[in-house]
Amino acid sequence: MDKRPIGVFDSGLGGLTAASELAELLPGEKIVYLGDSNNMPYGEKSREEIIRMSRADLAFLLSMDVKAVLVACGTATSNALDVLEQESPVPIYGVVEPAVREAVSATENERVGVLATRATIRAGNFERLLHAVAPQLSVTSQACPKFATMVEDGIFEKTDPRVAHAVAEYLPPLREAGVDTIILGCTHYPLLADIISEYMGGGVRLISSGAAAARRLCADLRDADTLSDGACGGTRYFTTGDGGAFARTAALMLRRDISRQLHCIEPFDKGPGRMV
Ligand code: DGL
Description:
By secondary structure, the chain is an alpha/beta fold. It has two domains: 6-94 and 211-270, 3-Layer(aba) Sandwich (Rossmann fold), CATH 3.40.50.1860; 96-210, Rossmann fold. Helices cover 45% and strands 17% of the residues. The chain is built from twelve helices and ten strands. It has helices at residues 16-25, 47-63, 74-87, 96-106, 118-123, 125-133, 147-152, 161-170, 172-177, 193-200, 209-223, 243-254; strands spanning 6-10, 30-35, 68-71, 92-93, 111-116, 138-143, 181-184, 205-208, 234-239, 262-264. The strands form two sheets. Strands 4-3-1-2-9-10 form a six-stranded parallel sheet, with helices on both faces. A four-stranded parallel sheet has the order 6-5-7-8. The N and C termini lie far apart (44 Å). Bound molecules: D-glutamic acid. The site of D-glutamic acid has 17 residues, from helix 3.
């Protein structure tokens, strides 16, 4: 038994898709959620910058005495997990591998799509691992640079024309490729699942990378017998950005008010983002 909390981080609110799955699976666990909203979007930054920011995120969670860390961000997983794994004194989990395993089991026609940020698609981890696990797969990857910031700003209703426009901009290659399974490789994207499903047509399976990673972490904590005694679970939220904006969009995503559990912290890094 280990009563310490589980740490979860993302560049912003997208990682809530992982944290809420974790809280549902393990209601007795304490979760510390960090959104580095001041530096969002990570998907437009260089690998070096993503590593620097992810290191700061990990250091903050370690200062909260966490027993394990879920990198609930496809961009940080793809660009920095290898570095964090070497430096972290506690087990650290990313979103790529669990989502790939679920996609390989789900696909029937062996055509898989990957939607993610520019920095994730540039890193190529989803595609490499999909081919390593199932070399026969045809993989169609698409960067969707507008999606994460739209979700972060609370714009994800399928009736919103900005959402419909962005979907029509990014999804045609996946429809043309005839994929039957799509990995939502950025943890913000499950908020757009309804409109993505509608555009792709029935029968296309969507894999939430954050939820897949939460299921993996849950299984591993059970196997290692490092769950807490289940007496006092709950999530505390931290943001390096604007607390009001974080709480407003979180309320839309989670359908409840988290402002009493939310703490604003000093930005870790004010350096300008740069895409390579
Ligand atoms: N939620 C993050 C991810 O999973 C990305 C958002 C961003 O660009 O910061 O990739």
